[in-house]
């Protein structure tokens, strides 16, 4: 439905988009991600025909936005980051105006405007002037105008900016409901929002494609070894537990784990010093099948990373060995659960790696 082939854009003495190629299939909801200045808005403007590419080819439903601008605009609903609204028009009046611009037939306009108002939650303000609305409601008006005419392709640039939490939930659900009936490309800085809405993501940086895939597939690719959240109760300075950990680590490495032993300072508090956490991490790194153990912020919290490529049964065996080592060291397990890699983690790692690669080139 949307096709970009080797698209580039140069202006103002710089390259905003460079050799960008991707496809959005019919009925998909795709997130378009990148840091500020990555070229997202420029790309969206080229797709919608607001500016021509310097090189490459763009097709929307088979039409070129520059050669066939009316055919493309007839098939696209576009919500820019700052929608150009007429403040001296009422909400319903403005949407009627948009319906006329989009050449919605006269006998369909009333129903079309009513549908857009109802879907975007504008019923209570439909008679008010756009200029008197809050930013959140103005954003809804911008979303409503994009839906007028029921276009098959929807381009949303930051669709939930300025909305309150309840409005964000409602608009997210609306966009999810558009899947299948419409092809949606949306840009957002709110990565959990993209993860909740989109079936696939496209990530760009400095105008270049970094990655495109399902969020889960990107996470699996970046974190080949299974990860688990581990929380243990760590009695601070508890001599028996500390000594057991040191002995266990010593058996595996030939030396006592520094910082784990120490004189008992009183009753267990459940808090862990950095030295104690480092000692437990060293202990668990000796377990066969454990690739790394990373202490995290909370007391007794760790990220347990297993070797890549382990089968399910092998992963279970590694977790059993972790359990026995901690039991022998007298550290009760509070939690051992699969860690979910967020889209934010994926985004940060991909962009950081791409920037490092660019600097090294």
Provide a quick synopsis of the model:
The protein has helices at residues 40-47, 69-75, 91-101, 106-119, 135-147, 165-178, 191-197, 215-222, 239-253, 274-285, 312-328, 343-360, and strands at 2-11, 14-24, 29-33, 55-60, 76-79, 153-157, 183-187, 200-205, 208-213, 225-232, 290-295, 301-308, 333-338. With 361 residues, it is α/β, with parallel strands linked by helices.
Q: For the largest beta sheet, what order do the strands appear in spatially?
A: 5-6-7-3-8-9
The total number of structural domains is 2
Instruction: Output the CATH class name of the largest domain.
Output: Alpha Beta
Number of strands: 13
Count of DSSP H/I helices: 12
Write the layout of secondary structure elements.
Elements: E1 2-11, E2 14-24, E3 29-33, H1 40-47, E4 55-60, H2 69-75, E5 76-79, H3 91-101, H4 106-119, H5 135-147, E6 153-157, H6 165-178, E7 183-187, H7 191-197, E8 200-205, E9 208-213, H8 215-222, E10 225-232, H9 239-253, H10 274-285, E11 290-295, E12 301-308, H11 312-328, E13 333-338, H12 343-360
Parallel strand pairs: 3-7, 3-8, 5-6, 6-7
Antiparallel strand pairs: 1-2, 1-4, 8-9, 10-12, 10-13, 11-12
Helix pairs in contact: 3-4, 4-5, 8-12, 9-10
């Amino acid at each position: 439905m949307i096709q970009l082939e080797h698209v580039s854009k140069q202006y103002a003495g710089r390259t905003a988009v460079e050799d960008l190629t991707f496809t959005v299939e019919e009925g998909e909801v795709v997130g378009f991600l990148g840091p500020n200045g990555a070229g997202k808005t420029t790309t969206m403007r080229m797709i919608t025909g607001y500016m021509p590419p310097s090189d490459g080819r763009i097709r929307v439903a088979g039409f070129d936005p520059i050669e066939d601008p009316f055919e493309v605009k007839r098939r696209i609903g576009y919500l820019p980051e700052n929608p150009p609204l007429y403040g001296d028009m009422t909400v319903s009046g403005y949407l009627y105006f948009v319906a006329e611009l989009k050449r919605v037939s006269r006998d369909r306009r009333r129903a079309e405007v009513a549908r857009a108002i109802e879907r975007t939650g504008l019923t209570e303000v439909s008679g008010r002037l756009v200029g008197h609305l809050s930013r959140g409601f103005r954003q809804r008006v911008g979303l409503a105008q994009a839906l007028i005419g029921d276009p098959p392709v929807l381009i949303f640039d930051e669709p939930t900016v300025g909305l309150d939490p309840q409005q964000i939930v409602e608009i997210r659900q609306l966009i999810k409901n558009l899947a299948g009936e419409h092809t949606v490309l949306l840009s957002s800085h709110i990565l959990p929002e993209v993860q909740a809405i989109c079936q696939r993501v496209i990530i760009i940086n400095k105008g270049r494609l970094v990655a495109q895939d399902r969020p889960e597939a990107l996470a699996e690719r970046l974190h080949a070894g299974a990860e688990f959240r581990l929380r243990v109760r760590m009695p601070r300075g508890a001599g028996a537990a500390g000594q057991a950990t040191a002995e266990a680590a010593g058996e595996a490495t030939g030396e006592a784990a520094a910082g784990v032993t120490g004189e008992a300072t009183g009753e267990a508090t459940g808090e862990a010093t950095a030295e104690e956490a480092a000692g437990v991490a060293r202990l668990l790194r000796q377990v066969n099948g454990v690739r790394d153990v990373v202490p995290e912020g909370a007391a007794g919290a760790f990220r347990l990373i297993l070797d890549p490529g382990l089968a399910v049964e092998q992963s279970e065996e590694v977790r059993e060995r972790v359990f026995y080592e901690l039991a022998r060291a007298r550290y009760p397990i509070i939690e051992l659960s699969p860690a979910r890699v967020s889209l934010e983690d994926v985004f940060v790692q991909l962009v950081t790696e791409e920037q490092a690669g660019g600097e090294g080139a």
